[in-house]
């Protein structure tokens, strides 16, 4: 409807209807700028929580195998995870949950304590020093240099590697594949109840996605959870509540850094967290409005500082390293584009301090269909950086190494090696940060194969 002209007034001087303005909160989180809404962010935050809630049960169960008090590990997982996730949302303004990495807790419990015979306070001391190292390189902006040095074809490869990793986690939890010493060892039971839960969850998610539903992954997970309840699938996890939650508080042994044998362990923990977080943040935001026009992730530095700070705090409370959790992909797929989703996830994680006994009875198998669905969507997404031969070679290498090792850091090391070697052979001068990252990653991988 046009405004009628008034006698004696030029059209440009006529009063105009005020343009819609966005509130301060909307602007702070770039909610409208990234094409999201409050409702979508809240739902996506719930989706992320549902996908990762198993960690508050599984992480204490794993770490207790290494002697860390179960209640203390539970408290560290829920309390530090919730605070770090909310910090990720409020400060970095990114939709990532922060929680203990499954690759790290197994390493602490079964390798550092179980095989190398360190005490659990010494192991937590190593986690602490790896977190301090990450804080240092983040404050010195060395992480920024590494991220800036990642070429487009490697970003595409990392997205594919992370997608593959998510899918393999789902297959492993559903018992469709078996593992030995952290690596794939064969096929599992493809007809048992956990496998059927995955099929149902994946089928529902794919159907709803074809119909245009943003909640496809979560609704598939809910359908799978209902099936698990009907089939009698349950977890055998124990739960002590918050009683004894301070049993590991500040019990870490910081003098362990004086032991030269511990340096290699600290380096491996550092590399797993440092490069794993980069791969997840870059890979999960690929092809979304979260990245800017140059393929950069606004708030990346703050996100990595939150990650490092959570590792330091977690070691003080009784947990292994905290990372940007890969299950955040479920929320991003559901529409999470801002830190609002992370704040919602963090609040729900905090509630686990009181709802832990209830969550202990929710089978982790219910999440497998959602994980595989997200993996399929990530692997079939268009890849602008993988259109040339080098991009294809890096992607195939990263995916292949992920399948062979179930390790994001090793896949990233392979991608760095291929990219750096290709640059050197083509007589292009690789970025110094690319060389440095390749050397550190290669060293950490070799140390792992040499049993630290």
Summarize this structure as a short list of keywords or feature phrases.
two-stranded antiparallel ribbon, disordered N terminus, 452 residues, single chain, mainly alpha, 63% helix
Describe this structure in words.
The chain has 452 residues and is mostly helical. The protein contains 18 helices and four strands. It has helices at residues 24-29, 38-52, 55-63, 70-92, 102-113, 120-139, 142-149, 152-173, 193-210, 216-231, 260-285, 300-317, 328-333, 339-359, 368-379, 389-405, 408-425, 432-449; strands at 98-100, 177-180, 183-187, 322-324. Strands 1-4 form a two-stranded antiparallel sheet. A two-stranded antiparallel sheet has the order 2-3. Helix 3 (55-63) packs across helix 4 (70-92) and helix 17 (408-425) crosses helix 18 (432-449). The chain is globular, with a radius of gyration of 23 Å.
Overall mean pLDDT stands at 79
How do the SSEs run, as a string of H and E? HHHHEHHHHEEHHHHEHHHHHH
The tally of strands reads 4
Number of helices in the DSSP assignment: 18
Helices and strands in order:
Layout (H helix, E strand, L loop, with lengths): L23 H6 L8 H15 L2 H9 L6 H23 L5 E3 L1 H12 L6 H20 L2 H8 L2 H22 L3 E4 L2 E5 L5 H18 L5 H16 L28 H26 L14 H18 L4 E3 L3 H6 L5 H21 L8 H12 L9 H17 L2 H18 L6 H18 L3
Antiparallel strand pairs: 1-4, 2-3
Helix pairs in contact: 2-14, 3-4, 3-5, 4-12, 4-14, 6-11, 6-12, 7-18, 8-11, 8-15, 8-16, 8-17, 9-10, 9-15, 10-15, 11-12, 11-18, 16-17, 17-18
């Amino acid at each position: 409807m046009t405004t009628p002209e008034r006698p004696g007034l030029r059209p440009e001087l006529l009063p105009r209807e005020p343009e819609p303005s966005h509130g301060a909160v909307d602007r702070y989180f770039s909610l409208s700028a990234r094409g999201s809404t409050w409702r979508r962010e809240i739902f996506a935050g719930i989706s992320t929580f549902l996908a990762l809630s198993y960690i508050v049960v599984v992480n204490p169960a794993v770490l207790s195998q290494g002697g860390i008090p179960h209640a203390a590990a539970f408290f560290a997982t829920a309390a530090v995870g919730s605070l770090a996730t909310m910090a990720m949302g409020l400060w970095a303004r990114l939709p990532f949950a922060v929680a203990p990495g499954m690759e790290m807790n197994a390493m602490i419990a079964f390798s550092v304590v179980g095989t190398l015979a360190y005490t659990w306070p010494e192991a937590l001391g190593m986690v602490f020093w790896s977190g301090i190292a990450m804080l240092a390189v983040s404050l010195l902006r060395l992480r920024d240099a590494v991220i800036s040095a990642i070429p487009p074809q490697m970003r595409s490869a990392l997205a594919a590697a992370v997608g593959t990793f998510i899918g393999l986690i789902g297959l492993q939890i559903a018992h469709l594949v078996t593992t030995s010493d952290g690596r794939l060892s064969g096929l599992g039971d493809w007809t048992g109840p956990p496998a059927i839960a995955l099929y149902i969850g994946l089928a529902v998610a794919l159907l709803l996605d074809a119909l245009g539903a943003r909640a496809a992954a979560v609704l598939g997970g809910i359908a799978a959870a209902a099936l698990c309840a009907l089939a009698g699938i349950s977890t055998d996890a124990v739960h002590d509540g918050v009683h004894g939650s301070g049993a590991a508080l500040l019990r870490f042994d910081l003098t362990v850094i004086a032991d030269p044998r511990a340096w290699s362990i600290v380096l491996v923990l550092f590399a797993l967290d440092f490069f794993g977080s980069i791969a997840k943040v870059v890979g999960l935001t690929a092809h979304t409005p979260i990245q800017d026009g140059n393929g950069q992730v606004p708030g990346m530095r703050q996100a990595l500082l939150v990650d490092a700070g959570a590792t330091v705090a977690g070691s003080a409370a009784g947990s292994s390293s905290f990372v940007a959790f890969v299950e955040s992909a479920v929320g991003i797929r559901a529409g999470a584009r801002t830190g609002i989703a992370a704040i919602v996830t963090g609040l729900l994680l905090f509630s686990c301090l009181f709802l832990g006994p209830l969550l202990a009875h929710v089978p982790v198998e219910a999440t497998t269909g959602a994980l595989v669905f997200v993996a399929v969507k990530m692997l079939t997404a268009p890849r602008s950086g993988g259109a040339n031969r080098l991009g294809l070679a890096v992607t195939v290498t990263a995916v292949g190494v992920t399948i062979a090792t179930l390790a994001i850091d090793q896949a990233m090391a392979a991608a760095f090696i291929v990219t750096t070697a290709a640059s050197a052979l083509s007589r292009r001068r690789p970025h110094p940060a690319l060389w440095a990252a390749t050397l550190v990653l290669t060293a950490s991988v070799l140390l792992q194969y040499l049993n630290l």
